[in-house]
Amino acid sequence: MPSALPDGEPVPADGALPASALAGVADRPLGFYLHVPYCATRCGYCDFNTYTATELRGTGGVLASRDNYAETLVDEIRLARKVLGDDPRPVRTVFVGGGTPTLLAAGDLVRMLGAIREEFGLAPDAEVTTEANPESVDPAYLAELRAGGFDRISFGMQSARQHVLKILDRTHTPGRPEACVAEARAAGFDHVNLDLIYGTPGESDDDWRASLDAAIGAGPDHVSAYALIVEEGTQLARRIRRGEVPMTDDDVHADRYLIAEEMLSGAGFSWYEVSNWATSEAGRCLHNELYWRGADWWGAGPGAHSHVGGVRWWNVKHPGAYAAALAEGRSPGAGREVLSVEDRRVERILLELRLLDGVPLDLLQEEGRAAADRALSDGLLRPEPFAGGRAALTLRGRLLADAVVRDLVD
Fold first, then answer.
1. Which pLDDT belongs to residue 1?
2. Of 24, 82, 181, 384, which has the most beta carbons under 10 Å away?
3. Sign of CA dihedral 239, 241, 246, 252
4. What is the mean pLDDT of the chain?
């Protein structure tokens, strides 16, 4: 089942933010994340806030139905307009995620985007993305999305090998994600991403190379490759605990990452975040860069998280409770926290170190700066950015990014 929400102080019934959060908004970009919590089946490794029809049956009634979900989410977009008041910013990025957003009708996704356009306006160069399950779209669906304003799409490929997909409980057939890239291009999508996962129990180096070959050959301009994380409470975690499938160790993950870097860079992709590669700057995911750089975003939908001006909050998780709050004119927020100056400094280091250009050295305190000097000597940070006042990871540093960042924030 989905992981638990964090603790926090109550969110006001009207969702109002402290005045400090709204100060200086014109200097920060604004994005929207729209969460669609529905899935046809639950993948064994997933602990996202998602629900199948069986899991929702009898727990939310009509309020939890995906048939009227778009209207409910539009209600939260209108709430966002009230909370942000006379905030002048047009929206720079929109990202529809899940779950499986493409279980909704294409017209529903376009309607949700239309509400953002109506309430806030979209920047002239706005990036508008949706995630998609390869089996839940066809050329007509993709054409309707493109005509409705979506210009970027991200397909969950995970692997090109059937036995690996089976371990992950993925339902699409090998070859379908690659076909989707061609269909998205034909529909006029400017940017296409394929998501891959490495380190699945039973996956070999050859399996991983085959997946990368298939992804590269499909012609996307962006590839995300994530190490499998086995989350407690998932079906996969239970299978590993019972000894049905082996756990993949960190050394295997490191080897697979090096294979990804070698093959993707050889095919013209460049990394710009530890788990993300693009063929050009235009192909990078601007929405994710908002997260990594601590900008403002409003997360609409059950369990969605938001951040505006150092205030972070999160919505109730269940679709029925979420819809009920909005139907009653209340914010669906379950809790929030106001980040201190120190919190924000640490988060900048945690997130920006993962980026190609790294973090300013002047963010580091005395012990962190000493740790950065050691990391440079150990070949974990690149000398040229360091000389220019930034801590930026080498390839070896990317393999040890979590350990490096722990040292820098001490």
1. 41
2. 181
3. positive
4. 92
Instruction: Please tell me the predicted confidence (pLDDT) of residue 407.
Output: 97
Model confidence band, residue 309 (pLDDT cutoffs 50, 70, 90):
very high
Structure tokens at 366: 């005395």
Q: Is residue 6 very low, low, confident or very high in pLDDT (cuts 50, 70, 90)?
A: confident
What type of residue sits at position 9? E
